[in-house]
Amino acid sequence: MSNTDTTPFPKNFLWGGATAANQIEGGYLDGGKGLSIQDVMPNGIATAPTEAPTADNLKQVAIDFYHRYAEDIALFAEMGFKVYRFSIAWSRIFPNGDDAEPNEEGLAFYDRVLDELEKHGIEPLVTISHYETPLNLTRTYDGWVSRDLIGFYECYARTLFERYGSRVKYWLTFNEINSVLHAPFMSGGINTPKSELSTKDLYQAIHHELVASATVTKLAREIAPDAQIGCMILAMPTYPLTPDPDDVFAAMTGEHSNLMFGDVHVRGEYPGYALRLLKEQGVELDITEEDREILKNTVDFVSFSYYMSVAETASRGNQQTTAGNLIPGVENPTLKTSDWGWAIDPVGLRIVLNQFWERWQKPLFIVENGIGAKDQLVEVDGKKTVIDDYRIAYLNDHLVQVGEALQDGVNLLGYTPWGCIDIVSASTAQLSKRYGFIYVDRNDDGTGSLDRYRKKSFDWYADVIRTNGGSLTR
């Protein structure tokens, strides 16, 4: 493919990038913001949360988007972004999560962000809750274990829809909602340590999130009827390690733990395999008739993150497990890995796109994809940059597979690669794990000028957008 005439990407395809408030904004107490769970996670998910914020938490400043948003959005516009996915920090709007009234300073900040996006003609794609539950809701209510959080979340979402409903077309209810199975504190704001959390409480928390998602989906249609509401799932295709039927079944079972969340969001009820799983684990959920009715408010589209695939086997104890995006799996010996041990599998993205489209027949949106790498800032022709050919190769190969999926007949709305500007990693809380097209001069020890520099991939991605994928190489 070399020009816009031969590209499989539709003319209205939404090219852009994605970030999250807790990994980019900084200003962790500015403008009346309250504490979130991220303020007691200085090491990401590597260690238990601290009792109080500590000075070594890079997210307190992050990359200072809170003060530099106009500069950064201008850089996104220079690349040609059609859409920008960002999250709103719940504790900027309701500092404690259960406050009677919202914080006007927090609302005004996102007004200014939306002003800049509109100025540059960039469509906002807003995640309502992205791993940043207000800390008070975690400590007081044990997060989503409590049914009370449905009401607090509904109040928060109502505030957003009433304030921004006429300005935001695309909304996501929860980020990577299925990750609560593996990271209950970060994903579900659950204060009970994972080792002490009962299976019943974990799945009850998941149920509360699913009900909350359906509740605000219904609410959005009442307040902002022109909006599109989507769910967001951590996609990780699972391959059988061998053709042994037991391995194939193990892979299917592993996939079910992710697909269940999309099934409820799209079909409006729990699938049979999920009900069997709960029954076999002795879990009887507290599901009211009102819950069952609310769940019928299904999403308009399905969004997902995709970084890697995993393998699975019935003989897991004998196999080498591999690192992953919150969900570990069995190492696939046929794939290369990133600096952080994540399998690199472009074809897996085509597989996921086809699987989700065939299963749900809802428009899809790739809202995270990318490679974390150790970039080196260098000087070329008097300008500082990063020669990140590895990032270009990764994204090019994945986008070629996206093009194949489009030709397969998949309905795909857009593509927002993760960390379009360098941010603090969610899993490791490092800045050295870089994803962006824009290098931010800040280090893991907190030093650095915070200056921004265009990487080689910046111009490459701008060209991909300009040609609507026509510049991609096979």
From TrEMBL:
**What is the enzyme's main class?**
hydrolase
Q: Which UniProt keywords apply?
A: Glycosidase, Hydrolase
**Any Pfam family:** Glyco_hydro_1
Q: Which domain of life is it from?
A: Bacteria
| Gene Ontology MF terms in the entry | 6-phospho-beta-glucosidase activity
Q: Where's the active site on this chain? A: 368 (nucleophile)
Name the Gene Ontology biological process terms: carbohydrate catabolic process
* Assigned GO CC terms: cytosol
| Membership in a protein family | Belongs to the glycosyl hydrolase 1 family.
Q: What is this protein called?
A: 6-phospho-beta-glucosidase
- The source organism is Microbacterium halimionae
